Structures are given as C-alpha cells and as structure tokens.
C-alpha cells in the first residue's frame, strides 16, 4: 500500500484508491441523491467512485464528477471511476457498446476500471433481468473467456484503463487466468466482504495471483428484501462496539479499518453528509494500526457461517 497517496498498485501498473464511494441507490431513494452524495464525497476527499450500468445513476454520478472538475476541486486524472458490464451484455459483440453507453451517460472519455459485474450471462434484450413466463431468469450460453477477451479490447481501445471482475469465486477466476492467449489478468475482484463474511480463502487466492480484492458491503449486508432480517446487524456487534469504545471511534470506522489492514480496497455507500465525511476519517486514523485485525480474524469466524 502507498500510504502517502492512500492507494494500492494494480497488476497493470495503475493505482486504485483504497477507499471508494459506492453509488448503488436503494429502491425508495431518488436517483438525485447519487448526484448529491458524489459531490459531497469528492468535496470530503473521496477520489474513488464506484458505479455500474445496472445502478442506473451514471448520468447523475457523471454530472457530479464533471461539476467538481468544472469548479476546480479536482482534475479528471484525480478521479478513479469504476463502471461494470451488466449480464445482458456478455456476448462479445455487445461488450464495447455497453461501455460506450455508460461513457455517454457519464459524458466522460474513459473509465478507470471496467468490471464484469457477475459471472452469469443473461439473455440480451431490453430487460435487465429477463424472465420466462414462470418468472425464471433467462440465462445465455456465453463463455466468460470470450466476454473477457472483448473487455481486453476495450482496454486496448482506451475506453478503460484497467479491467477486472466482480462476484467471482476462485473457480471463475481460474477460468480467466488459464485462458489461452490471455492478454491482461483481472486487476481486481469486487465481492461482498465484512467481518461476518471475511472471504479469507478468496482473499488468500487473490493475493497469490496479484489480484486486489475490493470489498462492497463493508459495513454489513444492506437490510434489503433479499436479506434474511434475522441476520445479525454488523454495526450492533458487541465486539465491534467494544473496540469502537476503546479507540473512541464509531463501529463503522473500526469495520472499515479492519478491511484496510487486511489489504483490501473498501467501498462504502451513504447518502448522509455526516456519515460520508466520517468515513473519510478512516484514512486519517493511523492510531488504530494493528488493533482490529487480530480481534476479528478469530472471534467472528462463527458469525461468518451463521445460518448456513
């Protein structure tokens, strides 16, 4: 980790800031909140903005980025922007056009990182989640390696500086890494990761392959309709609370610091100005160095597998 610039090196020579803002907007939150949150985040010091085609907020996020460039707060090269290839665009002839759609919405010339959002191709069309008459998802037969090769061409075309994956397991990664004629390795794998789901084996595998693990949901699974509501709330965890009290910090800052000390890049999502600014504090807090990782690694193994 480059502590001075608070970033880590990617295997293609580029660098990624260790803390990023996630811009996925909950169902009942207006998309305009993504614009406000992105502006506040950049003003607070965030330089890593994570979004995706499927989030349907790239117009708002792009407008926020351009407004902060226009007022002199940042230059384009200061911002690390991530977009993602949605599953209905896995066919090789659809990959570049998908990225170009995102760039048009963003009104940017390139993205810094382009990820394959899921290793699950869906049938192309107007529906983001195509289903049959019985409501079952309609999958498409596309070789992930063919999709990856099309993403490599996007990098060669200058539409993205780096390419990576998201929600991949070790077997999925091996498929790409063992691809005949592989030109570029994935620079990162973005997955849900927090003390209750610490992804230890995946992290070890990624480190062995020089692939950065990027954590979303770093403050625990969102309390959406997809999540079992009986699942413990991470920020209410008593061990986390005790560490927070000991170091006079919030439970959120302790959870974020834990991930940074493990060598992960961390994404946080918030539409609350106070919390956005508070989350930046983790980069200024070096007094917690070495205090969180030991506590969590063993204590929360049982939590990570609760209910499974």
From TrEMBL:
Residues 19-283 form the NADP-dependent oxidoreductase domain. It comes from the Eukaryota. The active site is at 55 (proton donor). The record marks 84 as: Lowers pKa of active site Tyr. PROSITE patterns: ALDOKETO_REDUCTASE_1, ALDOKETO_REDUCTASE_2. Substrate binds at residue 117. GO terms for molecular function: oxidoreductase activity. Signal peptide: none annotated. Keywords: NADP, Oxidoreductase. Belongs to the aldo/keto reductase family. PANTHER family: ALDO/KETO REDUCTASE. This is NADP-dependent oxidoreductase domain-containing protein. It comes from Sciurus vulgaris. The lineage of its organism: Eukaryota, Metazoa, Chordata, Craniata, Vertebrata.
């Amino acid at each position: 980790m480059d502590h001075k610039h608070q970033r880590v090196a990617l295997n293609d020579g580029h660098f990624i800031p260790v803390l990023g803002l996630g811009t996925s907007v909950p169902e009942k939150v207006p998309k305009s909140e993504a614009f406000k949150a992105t502006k506040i985040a950049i003003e607070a010091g965030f330089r890593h903005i994570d979004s995706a085609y499927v989030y349907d907020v790239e117009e708002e996020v792009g407008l926020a980025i351009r407004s902060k460039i226009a007022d002199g707060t940042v230059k384009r090269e200061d911002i690390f922007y991530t977009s993602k290839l949605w599953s209905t665009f896995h066919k090789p002839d659809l990959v570049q056009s998908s990225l170009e759609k995102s760039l048009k919405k963003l009104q940017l010339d390139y993205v810094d990182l382009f990820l394959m959002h899921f290793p699950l191709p869906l049938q192309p069309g107007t529906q983001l989640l195509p289903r049959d008459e019985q409501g079952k998802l309609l999958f498409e037969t596309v070789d992930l390696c063919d999709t990856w090769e099309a993403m490599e061409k996007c990098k060669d075309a200058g539409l993205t500086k780096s390419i990576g994956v998201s929600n991949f397991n070790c077997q999925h990664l091996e498929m790409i890494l063992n691809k005949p004629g592989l030109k570029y390795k994935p620079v990162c794998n973005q997955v849900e990761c927090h003390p209750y789901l610490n992804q230890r084996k995946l992290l070890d595998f990624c480190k062995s392959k020089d692939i950065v693990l990027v954590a979303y949901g770093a403050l625990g699974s969102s309390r959406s309709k997809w999540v079992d509501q009986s699942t413990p709330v991470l920020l209410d965890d008593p061990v986390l609370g005790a560490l927070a009290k000991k170091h006079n910090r919030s439970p959120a800052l302790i959870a974020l610091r834990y991930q940074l000390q493990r060598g992960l890049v961390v994404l946080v999502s918030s539409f609350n100005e106070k919390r956005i600014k508070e989350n930046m504090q983790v980069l200024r807090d070096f007094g917690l160095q070495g205090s969180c990782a030991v506590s969590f690694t063993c204590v929360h193994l049982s939590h990570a597998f609760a209910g499974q």
